[in-house]
Structure formats: C-alpha cells, structure tokens
Amino acid sequence: MADKLLEVKGVSKIFRVGGMLRGKKLVAVDNVSLSIDNDKPVILSIVGESGCGKSTLCKMILRLHNPDMGDIVMDGKSYADKKSYDPKQFKLDVQPIFQNPYESFSARKTVDTYLYNTALRLGIAKNRAEADKVVDEALKSVGMSLAVVKGKYATQFSGGELQRVSIARALITRPKLIIADEPVAAIDASMKMNIVNLFKELRDKYKISFIYITHDLSTAYYVSDYIATLYRGCLIEYGPAKQIMDNPAHPYTELLMSSVPRVGDKWEKEIAMPDMEGKEYAVEYCKFAPRCPYATDECRQKRPDAKDMGNGRMVLCCHPLCQQTKEA
Ligand SMILES: Nc1ncnc2c1ncn2[C@@H]1O[C@H](COP(=O)(O)OP(=O)(O)OP(=O)(O)O)[C@@H](O)[C@H]1O
Fold it and tell me: Does ipTM surpass 0.90 in this model?
C-alpha cells in the first residue's frame, strides 16, 4: 500500500473559451497540489465560489478530464501511466456522489436496480441472493434498508433520502475515496447536516476518505479535517480545517470565514463579482489582488509563491495574515 491514497501534483487544466480562432485560454485549474494519506481517512473539503475550478479538479481526479499539466497518483498508480490503468479497480476504489440525486436515478427504473447493478456488474456479489445481502448492508449503513427501498422509484423519496441511496450505492464497492460534488446543494436545509454527519460516520466506520466539494461553508466548517480553498483555479490555502478556519492566513479565506456559519448560508451572493471573473483568471500577478483589501504593489507585480506554514499548511499569498502554525 502506498503512503498516499491520493497525490495531486502540480495539476492544471486549460480550456479554450469563445471559439477556436478568437477564443482565449482559461486556466480553470492552475498548478494545484494536494494529497491524502492512506493510513488516516479524512474529509477534505474543497471550497470556493462558483467557477473557481472545484468541479474541474474533481473531474480530473475521477479521470473524466485529463490534466494538461502535472499528474495525479491514486494509491501509487500514476494517471500518466495509461497502461497500468485498471478501470474496474478504479471504479471499486473511487466513487462519485453528485449534486442532484434525482438526476442520478432514472424515473423509469426502480432505485434498487442501480444498487443491484453495481453489486453484480462490479463482481461484489456473484448472484442475486448475495446481492440482496450486499445491497441491504449498504442501505443499512446509511440508515435505510432493502425492505424500505425495494420496488420504489426516485420520485417516491425525499431529496435527503435519495441522496442516502446514492451514498449506499457508492458504498457497495467498498471504496477508499468518495468524491462528493455539492452533495447537499439540492437538499432541504434541515437534511444537510444529516448527510454530512453520515460522511463522518462512514469515515470512522469504514475508513473511507471523502473529498467534499461545497459552496456551503457552514457544513464544511463542521465536517472537514482539511480544507482546500480555490480561487480562480489556484489553491490559495490548504491545511488542517480548524487551524485555517480559526486563523486564516489568506485574505480570501478570511473573507469567506467572515460569513460562517449558518446552515445553508452561501457566501457567493455577498462577495462574488462575476464581471471580474475573466480578467482575474487572466492576471499574471496575484489573482486575488484586484479584490484584496491588503494588496500592495508587490501583489500587483508577481505571482505569490506557495508558503509552507508548517503542520501541513500552505498559503499562496505575498503577505499571509498569520505566520507559522503551531503544532496541533
Ligand atoms: N468544458 C469546459 N469548457 C470551457 N470552460 C469550462 C469547462 N468546464 C468548466 N469551464 C470553466 O472553468 C471554470 C471553472 O469551472 P468549474 O465548473 O470547475 O467551477 P466550480 O468551482 O466547480 O463552479 P460551480 O461551483 O459553479 O460548479 C469556469 O470559468 C467554467 O466556466
């Protein structure tokens, strides 16, 4: 077993927007590095406002996009080494959960069909009787059961219940990593904590790590072991969640944290300035400088280097708001 479950190494993704001839390059993910250890499962939240590159980064981890630069290594296997890629093993190890559970299940098939398919097609169960057991166990892990779910269609569940079924489906493969892209965004505020609590339970019980992509800072605040803040494609702050949230080093993280925490709150309405998005993606110096209350000439002249704050913490800022992190 490799030391690291996941290593994202200097990864970038460049899109061409506005046509092939007149279009421009948009660096949606810009030289991002982060990692998750194999021996200690964690919940890593990726936060940042709309369009900062959260989904693009996760699509690269899920192998739905190829990185244009850098590499991703999953449990010791480099994505660049296409020959050693085993799609079935990858599906067993890494499972996605999407934002809207009603889009994950067709209205024409009963939801248990999806769970049986996952169990049988990926070889977790050899026959229907074994699949009954596997599916029931997975549903029980999320507080449901086959008896309750069997024969029902997606529309017969609430959003929170159906998201639990999606999580049960992901659990069937006994994954090492679950990537949940805005899993509570389409769910009633009262059920949000219920779902993120489940992530904590599953982390501890089954030793699964989670990448939790979210706009919802209040749930990120509550659930995360580590936080990665993205801004215009750059990883601007990364490290242990409590340290970052209590004592942010980047002015953008400070701005985000000032809106924490009320369940269901989003910060984007207060601070997003979409008209600046294209310009900020393109700037050659610090991408946050145009909005930063502390920006100096230095910030408007060069890209900041990643500063190691100690204790696994990193900040991308010319003038971090705090210096060395104390040991946890
Ligand atoms: N296939 C694509 N082609 C061109 N541009 C893209 C493509 N996918 C994403 N982008 C652009 O890349 C940037 C990052 O998008 P991404 O979806 O990763 O952001 P996000 O942080 O997940 O946003 P949201 O929270 O709204 O889902 C955005 O400016 C987006 O418009």
Answer: yes
